[in-house]
Amino acid sequence: MMGFAVQNTADFAELREQVYQELFGTAAKISHEVFPLIPHIDVCIYPPGHAGRAFYTLVSSGMSDLPMELEEGVDRAYRRREIILYCETPEEEYVDMVRFFGRFPFRYSTWLGAGHTIPNGDPPQPMFENSKLVAIVLTDTVVRSDSELADKLVLGGDPVEFLWPIPITQAELDLKLSRGYGALMDRFNEVEHPVILNPRRASNV
């Protein structure tokens, strides 16, 4: 449920900040959400350098303050997530994308998990200028230290994990829809899909 902030999540924020500090170092900047919504979602921008990182890391902070509304039968371990994105430069449109997906499940009373795809409009339109990328597939991060977040951060009794949004082309989206999430991930593994976002990359399908 989305609304104006009334509950105190200071303890959650403090724990999350401690873990983020361990994983990413000190944030170069924090993009604060202007409106006092529930949950309040900031985007932390971490520069290269910490623990050998050669790229910027953009991370939502606040999405995990509230549990997502899971469908019946989905394990409650999926209730709390944060969004993570890796890029060469922290463009404002990337920051906005992280916040958009952090806000998404509360805006639409739903949940996000690995394997979910979200097209950019209907019909899907390019997400970036001069780009073939028209949708997002959400997956688990492949950066090992980041994939261990659930071992370090538990809020309200629920483990917190990162979701990594990968912008994809129409052909890649069609592959996922026709043959499944596993087929798309197998293709990405074959071509060694990079961790760092390239808004103008060619299609892998």
Explain what the structure shows.
The structure is a single chain. Strand 9 (154-155) and strand 10 form a beta hairpin. Helices cover 29% and strands 25% of the residues. It is globular and about 45 Å long. By secondary structure, it is of the alpha+beta class. The strands form 2 sheets. Strands 2, 4, 5, 6, 7, 8, 9 and 10 form an 8-stranded mixed sheet that branches. A two-stranded antiparallel ribbon has the order 1-3. Residues 1-7 have low confidence and may be disordered.
Quick structural gist:
This protein is α+β, with helices and mostly antiparallel strands and 205 residues long.
Keywords:
single chain, 205 residues, alpha+beta, 8-stranded mixed β-sheet, two-stranded antiparallel ribbon, 6 helices
